Every structure is written in C-alpha cells, then in structure tokens.
Amino acid sequence: METQELVTLLARWLHIFSAIALVGGTVFIRFALVPALAGADGEGVDDSVSGAIYRRWTRIVMVAIAWLLITGIYNAAIMAVRYDLGPVYNALLGIKMLLAFVIFALASLLAGRSALARRLRTRERTWLNLNLLLMVVLISIASFLKQMDPPPRTASASPDSAATEME
Fold first, then answer.
1. Is 105 inside any structural domain?
2. What is d(CA 79, CA 153) in angstroms, rounded to the nearest whole number?
3. 100 exposed, middle or buried (CB, 10 Å; 0-12, 13-18, 19+)?
4. Model confidence over 53-80: pLDDT tens digits?
5. What residues form DSSP beta bridges with 83?
6. Residue 115 is part of which domain span?
7. Segments of 12-165 assigned E as strands
8. Would the pLDDT of 144 be above 60?
9. Domains in the chain: how many in total?
10. Has residue 167 been placed in a domain?
11. CA distances from 153 to 50, 84, 92, 119, 157 (A)
C-alpha cells in the first residue's frame, strides 16, 4: 500500500470514528443522561456531577469536531483530485458541509459554559433532538454520496497532466 493510500485510509477512519463519538455521545446525552438528571431531582445528583460530565463531553466534542474538519477537508480534496464529481455530487457535498457546521455549532453550544449555552440547555431535549435529526440527514447524504461512484478523472483532465503538457 502506497503512503498516500495509507494516509487516505487513516483519514477516513479518523473521520468515521470522530463522527461515531459525536453522534454516539449525543445519543447517550439525549436518551440516557438528560432523562437521568431530570429524574434525579434532589436524589443525590448535584451540579458538580453534571458539571464534571459536561466538562469531559466538551473536550470530546472539540476533538471530534477538529478531526472531522481536518479529515473532511482532506477527504473532499482527494475526491476532487481523483474523480470527476459533477454538479449533483458537489451540491450534496456542499449541503453536507453546511449541515456539519450547524451540527458543530449546536454541539459546541450545548456542551459549552456560556450564558447562551445555559439558556439552550433549558430546552436541551429539543436542541439535542434537532441535532440528532440533522446528524441523521447528514449521514444519509454521506451514504448516498458514497454510493454515487463518480467516474475517475481522465489523464488529460488531471492537473498533473496539464502541467506536464505545458513543459
């Protein structure tokens, strides 16, 4: 396996694992943590426990977002160089990227400590539901893009061949 193929494979894995962490953590918080904390009302769960949980979750969110951005840009660049993507693929990729930024913003706000984050957490279930819905749409688009199977770029259309022809 060539070095570039190995880097591309590692980037894909990091992208998928980061998405799993972000989506899985959001599912856990929405369907396990928030109901447990709401049902605890005075039964021994104090703010220090939920604060500790959210501090750790914030770190996971930030690392996952960073890796998703880095590997997502890399993966998109590799696809653009290797394949003739076409307008439908590019439009869906653009929608996917916009959805990702909305998801990142919501996840960051819900995990944060700002006044806005505290206000959003007053309706945390609603915002988590919205973020999960957006995640499902994004994953559906990603799955569709993976199945599109765009044709490879021809040698005459690649940037390397154009540079070679000019020499």
1. yes
2. 10
3. buried
4. 889 999 999 999 999 999 999 999 999 9
5. 152
6. 3-39+50-153
7. none
8. yes
9. 1
10. no
11. 51, 5, 19, 49, 6
Q: Of 124, 120, 106, 117, which is closest to residue 38 (Cα–Cα)? A: 124
Q: Which two tokens stand for residue 107?
A: 């996840």
pTM score, two decimals?
0.86
The two structure tokens encoding residue 11: 């980037």
Tokens of 29: 């918080």
**What integer is the mean pLDDT of 136-148?**
96
In a domain, 162, yes or no: no
Q: Terminal CA-to-CA distance of the chain, rounded, Å?
A: 30
Does residue 101 sit within a domain?
Answer: yes
- Residue carrying structure tokens 């990603």: 142
Please give the Cα distance from 89 to 76 (Å, whole number).
11
Distance in angstroms (rounded) separating the CA atoms of residues 83 and 94: 16
Spatial neighbors of 111 by CB under 8 A, at least 6 apart, are: 54, 57, 58, 61, 117
Residue corresponding to tokens 């021809």: 154
| Whether residue 159 has pLDDT greater than 70 | no
